[in-house]
Amino acid sequence: MANKWVYLFSEGNANMRELLGGKGANLAEMTSLGLPVPQGFTITTEACTQYYEDGREINEEIQGQINEYIGKMEEITGKKFGDLENPLLVSVRSGARASMPGMMDTILNLGLNEEVVEVIAKKSNNPRWAWDCYRRFIQMYSDVVMEVGKKYFEELIDEMKTKKGVTQDVELDADDLKELASQFKAEYKAKIGVDFPDDPKEQLMGAIKAVFRSWDNPRANVYRRDNDIPYSWGTAVNVQSMAFGNMGDDCGTGVAFTRDPATGEKKLMGEFLTNAQGEDVVAGVRTPMPIAQMAETFPEAFAQFQTVCKTLEDHYRDMQDMEFTVENKKLYMLQTRNGKRTAQAALKIACDLVDEGMRTEAEAVAMIDPRNLDTLLHPQFDAAALKAATPIGKGLGASPGAACGKVVFTAEDAEAWNAKGEKVVLVRLETSPEDITGMKASQGILTVRGGMTSHAAVVARGMGTCCVSGCGDINMDEANKKFTLAGKEFHEGDYISIDGSTGNIYDGVIPTVDATIAGEFGRIMSWADKYRKLKVRTNADTPADAKKARELGAEGIGLCRTEHMFFEEDRIAAFREMICSDTVEEREAALEKILPYQQGDFEALYEALEGNPVTIRFLDPPLHEFVPTEEADIEKLAAAQGKSVDTIKAIIASLHEFNPMMGHRGCRLAVTYPEIAKMQTKAVIRAAINVKKAHPDWTVKPEIMIPLVCEVKELKYVKKMVVETADAEIAAAGIELEYEVGTMIEIPRAALTADEIATEADFFCFGTNDLTQMTFGFSRDDAGKFLNAYYDAKIFENDPFAKLDQTGVGKLMETAIKLGKPVNNKLHVGICGEHGGDPSSVEFCHKIGLDYVSCSPFRVPIARLAAAQAAI
Ligand code: ADP
Ligand code: MG
Ligand code: MG
């Protein structure tokens, strides 16, 4: 049997989201729930994939089925495409499996042409509406086909408004809109080179193609990468008969949430605009009214809508985000989905749903996107400073958080300033999808126009970036990069602070403080801890980091990098002396100066960890990273060593390496300079002994980690001197102390020979940053130069340094575990690369049987939640 590429709404259901996309599946589900949905059909995501396989063509089989379904739709609606009696007008809407807000364009009122528009103008006795529909159709269709056409059409509209002396689109009359329609068509012909299509079927195929093509536009590609959506999924296309919100004052269109997407509070939230269509509400062109006001204007439709909200929430057992239209007082549902929400709201809603008996604790844990928690862990305004400050303006608190930074006016500037290390707040009239990368580069976003569902608000919430929208008091002059608010003129680079919870705007800098886990956050995390199997440790080099991580739930340190401890003023001098020494004795003397500092560092770490495990990695980077570069420092070192400046310079020059990352580093340093490893061993063991004496009830069991091992004999060699040194220290102290010596697995050869290495190692820790670069054979410091080209060419979908490459690097990890565990049943295994805090990588670590993940302190809650989700 031939493939089925097309489904009527009445043929699908919510479980078919892979095939029908989220929007299509939910339109089908709403249809079967008996809700008022304008009917239509969905062309599957498989058809999109097929379109790309066929070299960006819709093949005949698919075209045939589309035509067949137009016929079915004509039967259902009793209208006909291009008909002069009763014409069928449709929307063409994209809809991927995961919602991608604003990423792909919708075309409304398709099916209109010069003849049909006259027919509907006459029949409805509403020529303004008819021409408004037509000009919108040409505009949207052209924009999609031309890909970046928006601005041309907006210019034409602005010119028309100026000519007529009006400010609002709704003030344009039928003749103006008719005039605009013909200007638009001329613009289309000028840009594309052919006439604007009149045949509805040709329009429809063109539109479907454009939606398929939009799956591959740069914005969509960036969004997918940020949100872990595979390119291979494709998008579905929904063809739906139109409901008209722009027929007059008893019509309108709106969006609403069943609970507050910013706070999670259980109350209907949303916005409504009379005599409007489609994106008008979210585009921020006119400021919409709050949904509650709809009760007065459209009492019947509003009452019905409230019932629909309850039906949908009970059905999906989650907060719903809905789009609807009222045509001549009658309600039509156009979309529903589990609403995007802030992290704060997500936690509250999950807890409330448990308390309302709608969800189990495990389901509540599974509902939270771990990546979202990030925002809660970001700083908030210092409460005292905030109280003392007076807001200079107020907008809508569209996405919570605190942002403080320098004002910039364009997305490009935001990116450029951010690249220079500046913190910026992007201030715009309104944002559009093109601004996404600039929004990402900003601490916060402030817009003059737009409501809670404006583009800026939706995208900012998705990114977890603070956003204040719709501050109409701002007098904006984008062209000259300045604005005035509360009588003050702000220029590029001036400091501003915004509060995404209250919507308050402050002049200047308001200091921020770290966040804590409490309330609903605490409840969800305690549920998560019940389910997870993986332990979560942290990468911390200082007692302060360790303490923070413990507060956030870390159960130990998985990686303490000792190298930063060498950079403090006194130590670096001693360490440089060590590097420039000629004899072992001189080296030992220099290291002897560092020992007490290092011991103190470790004591403080053990104290902070209160008996939880601490893994200390021995010196890893190449020595040239420590030598002086400034002339004055070189002279100082020469004097201290009694050597000439030239001799020192020669030593420094001799440390030069072509590929330092693959050079003289890691355990290779311990082989060539055993004194360093011995000194570090003494520091670790002496610190442990002291802390154990002070706290006899704590388990103090140092884990010494040898980096960059590629061969068992190498580990054996280094381990021998560690053990001899450690045992001598322990014997001298006359105390019992257990310790472990393990290794990082970060060179492919180590993974491949893990059965040998495991005979000498008490533990493995995957250093996936190095393991990734060694496996791919490219350096994480240089990959940025070509990775973008790899994304564009679809060779890579993600940065392998951010998201673990499960296929290659993951296979090495699995291999190492499979080889290592059988030869050493005490072997414990963890991961301490950046990936330790990435949810999908955590899930993978759970799957292949790691004992723990270790990540930076602020990612600890994310890892805890991701580990629970992997286990549920
Ligand atoms: P997005 O995925 O960007 O939200 P949609 O496909 O939901 O795009 O379309 C955007 C808007 O267009 C909808 O919110 C709705 O207002 C309007 N729209 C889409 N289809 C129809 C329709 N059949 N009738 C009336 N309005 C529609
Ligand atoms: Mg929508
Ligand atoms: Mg490493």
From TrEMBL:
Keyword Metal-binding tagged: yes
Name assigned to this protein: Pyruvate, phosphate dikinase
Source organism superkingdom: Bacteria
Ranges of residues in domain Pyruvate phosphate dikinase AMP/ATP-binding: 59-288, 303-352
Pfam families: PEP-utilizers, PEP-utilizers_C, PPDK_N
PROSITE patterns: PEP_ENZYMES_PHOS_SITE (PS00370)
Reaction catalysis annotation: pyruvate + phosphate + ATP = phosphoenolpyruvate + AMP + diphosphate + H(+)
Domain PEP-utilising enzyme mobile: 422-503
Species of origin: Ruminococcus bromii
Keywords: ATP-binding, Kinase, Magnesium, Metal-binding, Nucleotide-binding, Pyruvate, Transferase
InterPro entries recorded: ATP_grasp_subdomain_1 (IPR013815), PEP-util_enz_mobile_dom (IPR008279), PEP_util_AS (IPR018274), PEP_util_C (IPR000121), Phosphohistidine_dom_sf (IPR036637), PPDK_AMP/ATP-bd (IPR002192), Pyruvate_phosphate_dikinase (IPR010121), Pyrv/PenolPyrv_kinase-like_dom (IPR015813)
Cofactor section: Mg(2+)
One MF term in the entry's GO annotations: pyruvate, phosphate dikinase activity
Family assignment from sequence similarity: Belongs to the PEP-utilizing enzyme family.
